[in-house]
Specification:
This protein is an all-alpha fold. It has helices spanning about 10-25, 25-30, 35-45, 50-55. About 0% of the residues are buried.
């Protein structure tokens, strides 16, 4: 059922995850409890993500895509 105007959506687990990433940076996401939880959920639902996948991921930066109108 959709929320009514003025109702609050509270996502405690998401808030805790975002706080952990804010406090711990990328390491908090790619190593430890968050990666473990995502990998466990993946396994439980037939997925293929593992803790090793998260640990092996390398963050890369590239120029943003742009175009002219």
């Amino acid at each position: 059922m959709p929320f009514k105007p003025g109702e609050r959506l509270v996502q405690k687990n998401l808030a805790e995850t975002l706080r952990a990433v804010s406090d711990g940076g990328p390491q908090a996401f790619y190593h430890g409890a968050i990666a473990d939880a995502v990998a466990a959920s993946s396994r439980a639902n037939g997925g293929v993500l593992t803790q090793e996948d998260f640990a092996a991921y390398e963050i890369t930066e590239s120029a943003p895509i742009s175009c002219r109108r």
